[in-house]
Amino acid sequence: MKETVLKKFEEVFGDAEGVKVFFAPGRVNLIGEYTDYNGGHVFPCALTIGTYAAARVREDGRLRFYSMNFEKEGVIESSIEDLKPLKEAGWTNYPKGVMWTFGEKGFQITKGMDILLNGNIPNGSGLSSSASVEVVTGAILREFFGFEVSNQDLALFGQYSENKFNGVNCGIMDQFAIAMGKQDHAIFLDTADLSYTYAPVKMDGAKIVIACSNKKRGLGDSKYNERREECETALSELKKVVDIKSLGELTEEKFEECKSAIKDEVRVRRAKHAVYENQRTLQAVAALKADDIALFGQLMNASHVSLRDDFEVTGIELDTLVEEAWKVDGVIGSRMTGAGFGGCTVSIVKEDAISRFIQQVGEAYQAKIGYAADFYVVEVGGGPTIL
């Protein structure tokens, strides 16, 4: 891939003098969905697929961006004096947002850049292509301008730029999983205080298979912000009867005791998901540490049911992929992953059942939905690197 992006860089920008090549992974969340802004735990891992970037510094203030994933758009130009989110700037709002954030945090970008990207994360799949672009941009700026920032800073800057520049009220999970990824480990992250531990992902004869629904969605215009609002309202209602800062502080028992404080049945279900999903995540990590992959799978299944019924973020595409997965012998667990409303499912499948799984689920999905899903057998990878 390094050679591919260098060759394309030379083709697009005339030469490849002074260019360095970077990589940031995508991520998949194994369990703990919509808990990250509710002060709960998440359990994501970085993948070996992600975003490759070839970049160099210019002598002037011009910014020139090119994506091999959106070749029809050609070179999109901007300047470091003009870091504003513009609809016509399309995908370049993500790297521009990170440059703007560095400036806001006291790290001034003094020169322009030529940046070429090539991602092998399916676009709009929910494997965090946008967060991957944000983290790789942060790694580029750190390297070329000598900024003293940690990988955790890159995660926080990425989230800040998504919230404040691109207007998506996302939690920290995506950027954190990508910036802090460790090979063959998932990250058990407490989103309330960013304390984390790495847990080895030992699948024992099984693999992670991602099914991409190919239903496109944009986070900003999905129900993402609406769900967040519902949870925040439920929290403020609960605070009148129980001393908590976040939904993640409640056990299932405590929630059942005080849920009558929430004045709307829909909000009760939203809050229930946040509380129960957090507890499932704690149990799932303990199960993995105890080598109980069967229990881990059951908790994944329960997570999907809660996302479907209580949080209502799945939709017919994701439900079909998961429900068909559950029918296949050799599937340990399956659930939607990411923001939902399209995107992907993550399944743990015994190696000898993978080809049967892809065929059976693929055929059933095509028959019901009318177009094909894509399948990826993935490995757990590390964080951002210079190649």
Rg, nearest Å: 21 Å
Q: What is the SS-derived class?
A: alpha+beta
Instruction: Give helix and strand order, one letter per element, not per position.
Output: HEEEEEHEHHHEEEHHHHHEEHEE
Which regions are unreliable across 5 or more consecutive residues at pLDDT < 50? Answer: none
Q: How many distinct beta strands?
A: 13
Distance between the termini: 10 Å
Oligomer: single chain
| Total helical segments | 11
Cα shape: globular
What is the percentage of strand-forming residues?
Answer: 15-25%
> What percentage of residues falls in helices of 4 or more residues?
25-40%
Strand order of the largest sheet: 5-4-6-3-1-13
Q: Tell me, rounded to a whole number, the average pLDDT.
A: 93
List keywords for this structure.
387 residues, alpha+beta, 6-stranded mixed β-sheet, 4-stranded antiparallel β-sheet, 40% helix, globular
Layout of helices and strands:
Blueprint: H1 2-13, E1 20-29, E2 41-42, E3 44-57, E4 62-67, E5 76-79, H2 93-104, E6 113-119, H3 129-145, H4 151-164, H5 173-179, E7 185-190, E8 195-200, E9 206-212, H6 224-238, H7 252-258, H8 265-289, H9 293-309, H10 315-326, E10 331-337, E11 344-350, H11 354-369, E12 374-378, E13 385-386
Parallel strand pairs: 4-6
Antiparallel strand pairs: 1-3, 1-13, 2-7, 3-6, 4-5, 7-8, 9-11, 9-12, 10-11
Helix pairs in contact: 2-3, 2-4, 3-4, 3-5, 4-5, 6-8, 8-9, 10-11
